[in-house]
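[job 4471] stage=fold_predict status=RUNNING
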Amino acid sequence: CIRNLSKDTFSEENLPELIKKFNEFYHRINPSASHLELRLDLVDESKPDGLKEINLHTTKNINLNEEYATITNEHMITPSDIYNTKYSDTMGEIEELYGYDDMTNMTLMLILEKFNPDSKWKPYLDLLPRRPSNLISDFWNDKDWIEPILKGTYVSKKAIEYKLSIDNRVGAIYNTFVKEYPDVFDEGIFCKENLEWALYTVDSKMVFVGYEAFIIPMLEYFKMGISKVNGQEKRTSNTELKRRHYDHDTGYSDESQPLIQVKFYAQDNFSANSVITENPKFANDRLLISYGRFVLDKPDDCFNISLSFSAKKEDSLAKERERFFQKYFLFDMNN
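[job 4471] inference complete, writing structure tokens
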């Protein structure tokens, strides 16, 4: 197996230079994002020698609900990009047999781009760590939780389930693509180790706008947090997805328009040089396990609660339970 990343590709010493190269690259391909840039920040400013993280900053003031970024298909990696490669015919054949899957396509595309020395996305790929920043990678490689408070919670069960699902997906992709089409998919590149890395990376980078999946290299580095404007909390961020209009009657499509366009609107007022925050629509357990992050006091979070009661429908608290569960649209199996 050819390792997807050499040990000296990504280190704290060369990270500032890699970030600089990425900013220059992204501003070149998307001039409309020239007011956005990645910076390396201290996680805790009171600890100058402490951990650092990459955040998305704005160099100008941005107002609430203002469109602050417009991303087209030229500025993102999509699952359909694989069909513009030499693998197109094989992918179409496999899709006929097993169906279409965003994550599988994106995983293969990420590995393909990583091993392409002329890849357009090299400045972005050079920023990807050897190990994805998510709970599973940290736990399985270190055999220890980063936060002791997670011990004994249902997150551990979620982590095991997620690890098993990734292992199963690695096996399925390897057997379906590499073993069945050895002349197409080089086993030295599409080996299980690289597939696992790519799956974890995709799951920690891929975003959904509506039902469509993308990796948006610049925008993925926003900081997750709740917006507060005049004391009012906004639950989720606002994005808009548009596709090039296609007239089914005439077959006309305006080629001057981008195939895909995603617009991002500010969930808060951001002053120049501040970090841009977003509040994704999914719950903290998904953020923690897949992205290695969470949103403090997330108002639209949810939790799984398992309770057991007497199997007797006539017990004295049956009516109380029924009233309580109906209030929260829950179902009591005893009633």
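[job 4471] summary: Confidence is low (pLDDT under 50) at residues 4-9.
[job 4471] exit 0
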